[in-house]
Target: Transcriptional regulator, Fis family
Amino acid sequence: MYAFSYEAPASLADAARLSAAGGRPLAGGQSLLPSMRLRLTNPGQVIALDGIEELAGIRRAGNALVIGAMTRHVDVACSADVQAAIPALADLAAHIGDRQVRARGTLGGSVAHNDPAACYPCAVLGLGATVITNRREISAEDFFVGMYTTALAEGELITAIRFPVPQRAAYLKFKQAASRFSLVGVFVAQTGSGVRVAVTGAASSVFRHRGLEAALSQSFTPAAAAAVRIDAGELNADIHASAAYRAHLISVQTQRAVAQMLG
Model:
């Protein structure tokens, strides 16, 4: 690990000022700290966000849930508000990593990091959520740019994410056994404007599958999902799974998610 300075601001304004000056925000540390230990990252200055109370918490706002960026995975999983409004989101949070990861990891940290196999980005895109920062609001469609890349500008901080409450939703994850990240994860949501299907773990970044969305908007059945051809051409291939296997998993996990939603 390289030498670095450590700041613990008590307000969002102070954190934003330090971040704009080149400091690296530290949320739950589940991604940043391992990369620092391996000397893959040299931030110079680390800005701890866990002392900023306004960045954590869960509240209902009309037909949406607003979840603070520093809300831990375990708090999302155990929230009665989340369990009642978007049980799929609570279930997703309950199966991220292990207990230690869920006790420290945060919603905002995961979304800002945008690991191509992370679970939260799949929920953000699948639900059509809005990422709220200290400068603006960014739609899920515009937020995820590519592998470990988002629309966040230098020094911009996520403060909360607003999740519209769907009619119903489900998240199915096929785990990579060692890391517990998604080999393929599929988030399916029925909304007033149609069906959304987001996929994680299969490509360089989370993405929506328009073919599955179109088929399920016409007929919300496992058979309709099974009839959609999943193109493996741009999917990941590695030691864990071929692109063809990931394509197969997208279909299977979508079918299972639909079956679960139908009860």
Remarks:
- The radius of gyration is 18 Å.
- The first strand starts at residue 5 and ends at 7.
- Residues 78 and 90 are 7 Å apart (CA to CA).
